[in-house]
Amino acid sequence: MAFESSPQQAQAQAPTPLSPQEFKATAEAILTNVEWVIEGKAPTIRLALAVMLAEGHLLLEDVPGVGKTQLAKALAKSVDCTVRRIQFTPDLLPSDVTGVSVFDPEKRDFVFKAGAIFGNLILGDEINRASPKTQAALLECMEERQVTVDGNTYRLRSPFMVIATQNPVEMEGTYPLPEAQRDRFAARLAIGYPDVGAELAMLDHRGEFNPLEALKPVCDGETVVRMIATARAVHLAPELKRYAVDLVNATRSNAQLKLGASPRATLQLLRCARVLAAMDGRDFALPDDIQQLAVPVLAHRLIPTAETTMGGGDSTAIVADILRHVPIVSQPGRY
Question: Rounded to the nearest 5°, which phi and psi values hold at 96?
Fold first, then answer.
């Protein structure tokens, strides 16, 4: 069962990091596996894997039919660990997610029955169709990696990741995620429509079989934990940290924004940058890593002013503009 009953039990021996070559080879194997299902979207898949290895959570927000659920399933099936799916609906209860204590007549005591959140990779389909009360059940799970039910706290085992999908177009019968919930997602990605070549290839492949059904794991949960430990050791120069802070601070003072990015955003930005560096076989991060991540990590946390929205502006364009104007701190030598 994928939970621990106490913090002491949750503390395991520190995982052994992988070598840079092992990390890069394993990451490439996972990417190749997922690309077999989602064709022509290598940059998006790479960022999704980076979020997982940064111990973050991912929000896939796009129109129906472009492969949001397929991407989440393919990433989950590429890693041999426990996978749980939660289909968010208006009648879903918080106890369906976290679990509930039920009375056991044989033991004459209440016994905890774990909910769907007790897994390694959690696929939350159409998260904005659940009620705010049910959405709030995820707050503690996503941030503190634990669940509290009836005064008892149960730890969630690593790796733990929530991959949630939502449709930004059809708003009837949905409950928009509150700012506190959106801030707990490390990044928001949009898959987008495939190009002509990728869509033609999809028609050829999918006509015979579903590649997702034939997908096999290329690593296990223990290897993912070791990859996470490896990424944590990637060097961040003081100048690079300052650059990340300057970018986030620029969102807080931007006249087009009513709400800027939080300190949690800065942490996620640097954690994901470490992973991108490790995926390239480097033991140090670069400004390029930060720039690749700025829009997916920051944009969904920002709230434009009413005037900006009425003028056709959005948070994605604002972050892109901030990237153009915030200078990279000069440094001697490498980052």
Answer: -65, -30
**How many CB atoms within 10 Å of residue 281?**
14
Highest mean pLDDT out of 75-89, 146-160, 229-243: 229-243
Say which residues have a Cβ less than 8 Å from residue 326's Cβ, sequence separation at least 6: 243, 246, 247, 250
Which own/partner pairs from 12-16 qualify as long-range (CB within 8 Å, at least 24 positions apart)?
14/229, 15/222, 15/225, 15/226, 15/228, 15/229, 16/226, 16/229
284 has a pLDDT exceeding 80:
yes
Q: Does the pLDDT at position 65 exceed 90?
A: no
Domain 3-233 has CATH 3.80.30.20: no
Q: What are the start-end ranges of the H helices in 263-303?
A: 263-279, 287-298
For the segment 199-212, the average pLDDT, to the nearest whole number, is 79
Domain boundaries, the chain: 3-233, 234-335
Q: Position 276: which residue type? A: L
Mean pLDDT of 7-32: 80
Its CATH class, for the domain covering 234-335, is mainly alpha
Tell me whether the omega of the peptide bond preceding residue 304 falls within 30 degrees of 0, making it cis.
Answer: no
Secondary structure class of 100 (helix, strand, coil): strand
How sure is the predictor about 331, in pLDDT bands with cuts at 50, 70 and 90? low
Q: Say how far apart CA 111 and CA 104 lie, in whole Å.
A: 6
Same fold, 3-233 and 234-335: no
Question: What pLDDT sits at residue 332?
Answer: 43
